[in-house]
Write a structure and sequence with these properties.
single chain, 103 residues, mainly alpha, 4 helices
Length: 103
């Protein structure tokens, strides 16, 4: 992680996505080195670099649908004014969905 990224204060969702990225890199690294690959198995110092590159290039394709769905959920559960109700849930605002999205 670069110095400027270390100074960022991540939201819980962003922190979970970053942790998932780390796990993905670990899984990709293990997969590239899997003995079951036989002659195609990779070893050496390039494996972590290749694993990071593979996960980084795939990440937008994985995150985009998730973030799109979360955006659609947010549009259905708009934070309402005080003393009102969620237009979707019909419970006092903020509804549990908004609370979870804002966590």
């Amino acid at each position: 992680m670069t110095a400027w990224r270390e100074r960022l204060r991540l939201t819980p969702l962003a922190a979970e996505l970053e942790q998932a990225h780390v796990y993905g890199v670990g899984a990709a690294s293990a997969g590239l080195q899997d003995a079951a690959l036989g002659a195609a198995r990779l070893t050496g110092t390039a494996v972590p670099v290749l694993a990071e590159a593979a996960v980084t290039s795939a990440t937008p394709f994985l995150r985009a649908p998730l973030l799109s769905r979360l955006g659609r959920v947010r549009s259905l559960h708009l934070p309402a004014e005080a003393d009102s109700e969620c237009p979707q849930c019909r419970v006092p605002a903020p509804c549990p969905t908004v609370k979870e999205l804002d966590a």
